[in-house]
Amino acid sequence: MASASAKLQDMPPSGGYKPINYKRVPAKTYFSGWTMIGGYLGITAGACFLFYLTDKLRHQEELERRSANFALYPMLLAERDREYLKQLRRNRDEEAKLMANVEGWKVGTYYGEPIYNTVPEDTLIEPNYADYFVHANFKDFAKRAHLAYWS
């Protein structure tokens, strides 16, 4: 009974195992050291030439953009100032229309009394932010009020 259930022991193949390869196998060399240094220098020289061409083009475009900014900036400032003064005029007209029924109300004063006594009459007194948007929609005021925090 013991012989029927006994398994055969695993034995080496006939002729033995192959020899174990323990010798150093060097990597295949495609380029020598001098060839790799020469290739590096060649690629670096080509990249420097392409960088020079690209930088020259970038410099020309930057010069053109800066010139356009210098040409347009005074016009944009003048348009901004013009729109600012137009809005101040609209605010004064709206105040005059709104307070037409109030007795003794003069536009730009507080019941006939000038707000600033030491300033000549023809001096522009710039209103604060809330006074500038006094007749505007609140959403427009809120959209512009915290614009500095967004940038």
Automatic annotation (TrEMBL):
Native organism: Ignelater luminosus
Localization (cell): Mitochondrion inner membrane
Function noted in UniProt: Accessory subunit of the mitochondrial membrane respiratory chain NADH dehydrogenase (Complex I), that is believed not to be involved in catalysis. Complex I functions in the transfer of electrons from NADH to the respiratory chain. The immediate electron acceptor for the enzyme is believed to be ubiquinone. Involved in the interferon/all-trans-retinoic acid (IFN/RA) induced cell death. This apoptotic activity is inhibited by interaction with viral IRF1. Prevents the transactivation of STAT3 target genes.
Protein name listed in UniProt: NADH dehydrogenase [ubiquinone] 1 alpha subcomplex subunit 13
Pfam families, A to Z: GRIM-19
InterPro entries per record: GRIM-19
Phylogenetic classification of the source organism: Eukaryota, Metazoa, Ecdysozoa, Arthropoda, Hexapoda
Similarity comment: Belongs to the complex I NDUFA13 subunit family.
Keywords: Electron transport, Membrane, Mitochondrion, Mitochondrion inner membrane, Respiratory chain, Transmembrane, Transmembrane helix, Transport
One cellular component (GO) term of this entry: mitochondrial inner membrane
